[in-house]
């Protein structure tokens, strides 16, 4: 669904005018739609049902995309599990009411402390990303009198066709175990005292807009599954990762239902339709369910460029500076008859890389509100306090109501815990 639409000449989030949120909460503020998140989750859940109504799939929300407690709580209520990459993220799942037994723990650098925390809460599975990690996990689990359920993350050397910084399945990426080493790693895992083999995992990247790379990776994973089971090593589930893209500008990724169905049909065709499948979506659940609301501070004509200076910045939304990512920018109250000019939309941070949009045609004036679209994923969660800027507020819209789910930080919050020298 498109939760953000013009009504009576003003951009709304569901039934709430964005100007009402700005008036009560100030700017910059992240605004999320509960309905949009719910609809995206249901698309995964519905497409993952067998003919008899049973669930062939389990959704593990990749919370690195958005770890706000209210967002996690929405998905926990819907029945989601969670894909985590740190002990801190596990603590957030618990605080949001999530079930730790529906958590998979990914990430290349799990510490012993994090392993103990996860084992103490009986997480569903560890996605192990290296052979040294496998041995460390076995030793930690055995010392606790436990056995850790694991999937080994396979690096299939498949090009996802996405930005290099968010590609994870090539042989030069840090993630996963090299395809040629996986069989040996599983054989070793089968002998370790603190390990129970549960499944196999693969993740090839983020913001992927075609199904073909997934199918290529899946075929390589199934080759391994068939080889492992011929040796008596049972694989109970397939974790196919996340990474499905969204529309930021003119991308045309497959619909969630089409994507899930294509993978399940392929599994059935290969004789693996009986297996439980885990998906780890993040961006496709929350990306277009959120926006960043900001205010125009100044319009600054220049010799080569015109600048629209807003109160949001790269510390609030890092993706443009980090990835040169595109986000749509819409006036909250469009000036229908006003002349548009071309602007770079920039923030107050003291960096030339502090921009949110380049060469945008906008009819705007000082004090206008703008909506930076598609900001629900990798937005607030990647924000910082650079230039001693307090982080934005967060709001969840639910029909014709909205709830402040994260208060705006104050400068005093930033300095808490600091000391000057005696």
User: Mean pLDDT, rounded to whole units?
Assistant: 94
So how many helices? 12
Rg on CA atoms, Å: 23 Å
Beta-strand share of residues = 25-35%
N- to C-terminal separation?
Answer: 57 Å
Shape: globular
Query: Can you tell me the residue ranges where pLDDT is under 50 for at least 5 consecutive residues?
Result: 162-170
User: Can you summarize the main beta sheet?
Assistant: 9 strands, mixed
Q: Tell me the total number of β-strands.
A: 21
The assigned structural class equals alpha/beta
Proportion of helical residues:
25-40%
3D structure, described in words:
The protein is α/β, with parallel strands linked by helices and 422 residues long. It is 28% helix and 25% strand. The strands form three sheets. Strands 4, 14, 15, 16, 17, 18, 19, 20 and 21 form a nine-stranded mixed sheet that branches. Strands 5-6-7-8-9-11-12-13 form an eight-stranded parallel beta barrel, surrounded by six helices. Strands 1-2-3 form a three-stranded antiparallel sheet. α2 (34-47) runs parallel beside α3. The longest helix has 19 residues, at 212-230. It is globular. Mean pLDDT is 94; it is low at 162-170.
Layout of SSEs?
Layout: E1 4-7, E2 10-13, E3 16-17, H1 18-25, E4 29-33, H2 34-47, E5 57-62, H3 69-78, E6 81-84, H4 87-95, E7 103-105, H5 112-120, E8 125-128, H6 131-143, E9 148-155, E10 177-178, H7 182-189, E11 195-202, H8 212-230, E12 237-239, H9 256-269, E13 276-279, H10 283-286, E14 290-301, E15 306-310, H11 319-323, E16 329-331, E17 341-346, E18 355-362, E19 369-372, E20 393-398, E21 401-406, H12 411-415
Parallel strand pairs: 4-20, 5-6, 5-13, 6-7, 7-8, 8-9, 9-10, 9-11, 11-12, 12-13, 15-17
Antiparallel strand pairs: 1-2, 2-3, 4-14, 14-15, 14-19, 16-19, 17-18, 20-21
Helix pairs in contact: 2-3, 2-9, 5-6
